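Message: Just now I want nothing more than another pair of eyes on a protein record. I am handing you a single protein, as its sequence and its fold in token form. As I understand it, each token names a local backbone shape. Take your time, and here it is.
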Amino acid sequence: MRPFDSGHEDLVHDVSYDFYGRHVATCSSDQHIKVFSLDKDTNDWQLSDSWRAHNSSIVSLDWASPEYGRIIASGSYDKTVKLWEEDPDQEECSGRRWNKLCTLNDSKGALYDVKFAPAHLGLRLACIGNDGTFRTYDALEPSDLRSWTLTSEIKVLSVSPASHLQSDFCLSWCPSRFSPEKIAVCALDQALIYQRGKDNKLHVTAKLEGHGGLIRSVSWAPSIGKWYQLIATGCKDGKVRIFKLTERPVAHSASSFVGSYDDDASMDKVDSLDLHVELISEHDDHKSEVWSVSWNLTGTILSSAGDDGKVRLWRSSYSSEFKCMSVISAQQQQQQQPTFQERSQDP
């Protein structure tokens, strides 16, 4: 683990790698976005460009799939989502290499998370903020990325938590192309699974229960080679939780459908699949607030980070029980490498 100076003048809120892992974008309370490129010879991160992107703290970043070009979405406390496209003809570090495509300003409160949908769903974007509303946008024409339309606007919370001293919201799309479109939406201490039904609308089909505080992070695992789905959450109560989702066909009748939490939802509106949710793993190894969880590209290893200043890597054993396989500490003395502790009893 090699630290590098981001050059931000305030707190860094989010870090996002592009699809190939060769570029990383950072955002901060200094209202700037910075993009770094990896030097193949030295393995150092070099500043590619930096620009003032919003009028308030920028708290979330995400890269679009590379098949749509080099596009970044940013969400800010200034209530806007902005989309940026790279112009490779502009000189690096000029502040002009990334051009604003458009501004989405439907939110009535500070935004907390913004995420592009998997590539197979098209150029689609989701965001959520402390107005308690989850929104999705679609690009009208892939050839004209300056035109986006609001396709969904769903009130997740009946009461806006704008007046709360602490609040948190996060999103994670289901990456599977062999499953109906789904997204995990977390608002304060509740986590809901939305699925697109036959009426082309998003409906609540499952809920992740058991959280004892604000949900700081959610990550939907790639399901390569699996017949089930895995979702991880990191919570203010200090626990990392892993949920298992299985899809079960059900009879085409409203009485047999038990997966919906929406009063208006019925079997003629949603696909005939019952989502069964099971909490399969719960860990409090961080002994403090958990701020981030993220799966690797194959969905086999989960990383978590907490207030203890450590990154923990979790892996499923042969008995399908998740165990901590290693602990990485960012604390290091001068001219010393970070601590890396291996647990011999884990595979």
About this structure: Confidence is low (pLDDT under 50) at residues 253-271, 332-347. The first strand starts at residue 12 and ends at 17.
